[in-house]
Design a protein that fits this description.
Blueprint (H helix, E strand, L loop, with lengths): L5 E3 L5 E3 L3 E2 L5 H13 L4 E3 L7 H11 L6 E6 L6 H15 L4 E6 L9 H14 L2 E7 L3 H11 L5 E5 L7 H10 L2 E5 L12 H10 L3 H12 L1 E3 L6 H8 L8 H8 L18
Parallel strand pairs: 3-4, 4-5, 5-6, 6-7, 7-8, 8-9, 9-10
Antiparallel strand pairs: 1-2
The structure holds NADP nicotinamide-adenine-dinucleotide phosphate.
Length: 276
């Protein structure tokens, strides 16, 4: 079992420096994979209404027997934006999860043309005040959207979960997060196992530390100050992915990995991409 360190979010919550992505973990195999991850030391699970696996996440949490130590994340889908819609959406998520609380609740995509993310966020803050939600945050928000949210509600999101990997290091957005006390979370932290893991720069950094390319990339995330949420269905790869806190990359190695920047994996630009 790996011990994953934690740090405090801006609301005081103890938050793991690495978590488990659960996209495509469904059915009994999905539950088994999540239970294995928890047994292997993972304490943060990332789900969403649109992953259609909240029931499986709830089952895994119950099977683990350590519900109180876990941070369960789910996300409001675009079709549920709006104050009342979000309250209903949260009730649906709680029912599917079979839990009494969503520990981290995020807006999945801002959908700026729909223009309801501020009301959505207000509902999430109300749910937090009622105790049905632990921490409130967002996903795929730009600096401009975060600024508007903070200006109009006075509540700084605890987390912004965004696409982040060496091909897309999000330098400016991370600086904004750091200046405002927002924790960055990296989605597709391994660039979805693309050719990233065979890049010469990645394999050289990994070899220098006697670790795997995956471990080198995940350590890059944590040293940048972001929480990666790699998805793996395989218990051995889950352990490999979590075991990244026993070595330290140099500034030059971090810069070399960031130097692989070339852009997003697909056209997931929050100003234009919408998900319902
Ligand atoms: P990812 O974590 O970058 O990559 C997952 C892929 O890498 C899977 O095919 C996995 O296969 C493989 N893999 C994992 N560990 C490995 C290892 N040690 N060696 C070799 N291959 C390995 O991609 P992702 O699933 O897109 O992103 C992670 C999570 O971010 C998602 O699951 C989801 O929770 C979240 N997400 C959020 C958003 C958003 O809009 N907020 C968007 C995308 C993703 P195996 O399972 O077979 O190991």
């Amino acid at each position: 079992m790996v011990t994953i360190p934690t740090l405090a979010l801006n609301d005081g919550t103890d938050f793991p420096e690495l978590g488990l992505g659960t996209y495509n973990l469904r059915g009994e195999d999905g539950v088994d994979a999540m239970v294995a991850a928890i047994e292997n030391g993972y304490r943060l699970l990332d789900s969403a209404v649109n992953y259609e696996n909240e029931a499986e996440v709830g089952d895994a949490v119950r099977r683990s027997g350590i519900r109180d130590q876990l941070i369960v994340t789910t996300k409001v889908p675009g079709r549920d934006h709006g104050f009342d819609e979000t309250v209903r959406s949260a009730r649906g998520s709680l029912e599917r999860l079979g839990l009494e609380r969503i520990d981290l609740y995020l807006i999945h995509w801002p959908n700026p043309r729909v223009d309801k993310y501020v009301d959505t966020y207000r509902a999430m803050v109300a749910l937090r005040d009622e105790g049905l939600v632990g921490s409130v945050g967002v996903s795929n928000f730009t600096e401009k959207m975060l600024t508007r949210l903070i200006d109009e509600t006075g509540v700084v999101p605890a987390v912004n979960q965004v696409e982040l990997h060496p091909y897309f290091p999000q330098t400016a957005l991370r600086a904004f997060h750091d200046a405002h006390g927002i924790r960055t979370e990296s989605w597709s932290p391994l660039a979805r196992r693309s050719e990233l893991l065979t890049e010469q720069t990645v394999t050289d950094v990994a070899a220098a530390h006697g670790v795997t390319p995956t471990q080198a990339v995940l350590r890059w995330h944590t040293q940048l100050g972001s929480t990666p949420i790699p998805k793996s269905a395989d218990p051995e790869r889950q352990i490999e992915n979590a075991d990244v806190f026993g070595f330290t990359l140099s500034d030059a190695e971090i810069a070399a990995l960031s130097g692989l920047e070339r852009g997003r994996l697909w056209d997931g630009d929050p100003d234009t991409h919408e998900e319902m």
